[in-house]
Amino acid sequence: MNPFKYGQIVMDVDFCPRPELEKSLKEHIISGQNVLIEGERRIGKSSLIIKTASEIKKFRTVYIDINQIKTVNDLISRITNSLVSLEKQSGFFEKVVKTVSHLRPSVSIDSFTGNPSISFNANETMPPGNIENLLDFIYREHLNRKNIVIFDEFQDILNIKDYESIIALLRSRIQFHSDMPYIFSGSVRKDMDRIFYDLDSPFFKSAIKLDIGLLGRDNFEKYIKDKFLSGKRTINDIIINEIFTKTIENPGDVQELCNALWSITEYNTVLKPADVDNALKVIFAREKEFYEHTISLLTSNQLRCLTAIADLGGKTIQSGSFLKYTGITHASSVKKAVTRLVNLKILFNYKKEYQFNSPFFKTWLIHKRL
Ligand SMILES: Nc1ncnc2c1ncn2[C@@H]1O[C@H](COP(=O)(O)OP(=O)(O)O)[C@@H](O)[C@H]1O
Ligand SMILES: [Mg+2]
Question: Are 342 and 354 contacting, i.e. CB atoms less than 8 angstroms apart?
């Protein structure tokens, strides 16, 4: 079986250790400290949090992923469903249902896993006060058995129309739950910083920040080598470097490339540099339709800017040479196009540099024109 996993939370043998981060996160959790976790997509935030939390024996993990929520209803539904799946102990499920009973929930059982889930009438707008009730419920339960509450992709709270009042409401409850650790994780730094560092935000400086960067290189190299060796494939440092260059060391992308590399190589082989290029082709073949669809939705200015960033990098998008390369006259038009590319999550901006969210898409775009 292919030992490289991507696009999912990794645990146990699939988790490459990050001892320092695991240690500090563990310490914060145990001391009841709220933590803000920031890092790019696929850098390993969710895996780190879930893995670390699950190892702290006395605590239960209330994992609430609010990725792409749009409304208060969505938020209530996500919190309720994460509670429903929390505890098998008899009576707990009933208590959760009771907390939301006035919202007339429907309970269904997944025929495959046997797990219950709860849905609400989508046409009724639920009062935000239910969020308070649910958080207070979690806190009351915490007094019996300790909880760690994780809000993943927390910046998506900003998608809610009236998000200011919702953020204020969350904060007003959370501050009373001082010994129950909350973890807020997010991939969009600009939005997370707005929530946690804007002076007038209710969350201002309410959590200790942990920045998640790349995996430690030595640990990651050993992890990759051992996985390949488990299938009798030998990989040398030159090839590992090649993989790291092609993926800018992003753990999710490294795993995806290694997964493809594994799939095109045999037992008892020594991997060659050409195998890496062929593995990239496998990824391009899988993603081609999506990439083509993505660029078909762009305006000509957006595509020119994207191409220019692929070729020149994204540090100086308003310079004369960048304008010349794109053939766009006004720097303001470039800014507008690039902002749209960020909103479409094709690019992200970090430390004043625009970068591709997917290094594979960038490489594909360059290759396509060669
Ligand atoms: N500690 C790790 N060890 C090995 N692979 C990892 C690790 N963390 C992340 N990954 C890789 O990155 C992918 C995305 O991880 P995830 O935790 O979902 O990232 P994020 O929450 O930052 O988007 C995983 O599916 C896996 O391929
Ligand atoms: Mg995640």
Answer: yes
